[in-house]
Design goal:
337 residues; alpha/beta; Rossmann fold; Alpha-Beta Plaits; six-stranded mixed beta sheet; 12 helices; binds adenosine-5'-triphosphate; binds magnesium ion
Amino acid sequence: MYLIELQELVKSYGTVKALNGLSLKVPNGCLYGLLGPNGSGKTTTLRILCTLLAPDAGQVKVAGLDVVKDPRSVRRQLGYVAQEVAIDKILTGLELLQLQGDLYHLPSNERDIRIAELIERLDMKAWITRRCGSYSGGMRRRLDLASGLLHQPKLLVLDEPTVGLDIESRSAIWQLLFELKSQGTTILLSSHYLEEVEALADQMAIIDEGRVIAQGAPDDLKKQLGGDRVTLRVREFSDENESEQVRKLLANVDGVRQVVVNRAQGFSLNLVVDDENVLPRLREELDRSKLQVFALSHSRPSLDDVYLQATGRTLMDAELSASGNRDVKLESKQAMR
Ligand SMILES: Nc1ncnc2c1ncn2[C@@H]1O[C@H](COP(=O)(O)OP(=O)(O)OP(=O)(O)O)[C@@H](O)[C@H]1O
Ligand SMILES: [Mg+2]
């Protein structure tokens, strides 16, 4: 029933603990989304799954096969589209696909039929005989996707498939993923776009600091979480003391469940409250406190709220704090060969 089973994965790079007991199960035929900020361990998870990286501890199974013990059989079942790919600049896209087909031992007539289909499907005709060195980001992404799909894998693994693409290319890729799913392909994709996971995924996991902090269907996650959101835009606090004082004051209002001070994108306070009946009490308390409020908004929970609830920070905040120590990582399909 599960095509992928990851259990208690642990992986460190030197002193950096990238995965810290990550477990998840992906049902057969599902489009599964991994959502997490920069550095949360998405790529590490996918590379382990695709046999490109060995875990320090834990179990990885694809279609019941142990990935560590039987990497060859697992590779045949899956197509991997990496986050950043170093593609050969001298070859043309077409030559690269032919080479890829040969590496999968596809008979050449079958290979060529399949390549022609993908060129048509991914709208690559105009540039596929040009050298890859001249391709734009969107072209390279489509070529990658084609090469991951060439051998018609049961499982397609995509690491941030639409990052940096324009809206048109993004929706073309979404469309293709829907079609593949309807034909029975299981798809696992990582993303740090909330709207992407929300639009595509049947099931999802939110990862933070190398572990799964919430999982389920996007709608269920939102329901489970419950509670309405209130966001207050305020002037910047003078120090930690003031910030803590205000936080406590609001947290004591009847019906307020949680208050988080959010420093990203100006200053705001994110509250989780029982329902809209809390609003008048909240306004009273704000008037009394003389805190300057520029705007107050009230909404039902979003996936970002699920993330905030689970980690105490917004996805945006997590991205900002990670962007300071970001590595430039080059993925290579070389290792698959
Ligand atoms: N080759 C490496 N050497 C050292 N540290 C690494 C290496 N690859 C990843 N890391 C570290 O492991 C952690 C998880 O990285 P990973 O690439 O899995 O995250 P990610 O969720 O894919 O992030 P992003 O959204 O930026 O792609 C990060 O702290 C990262 O800096
Ligand atoms: Mg990554």
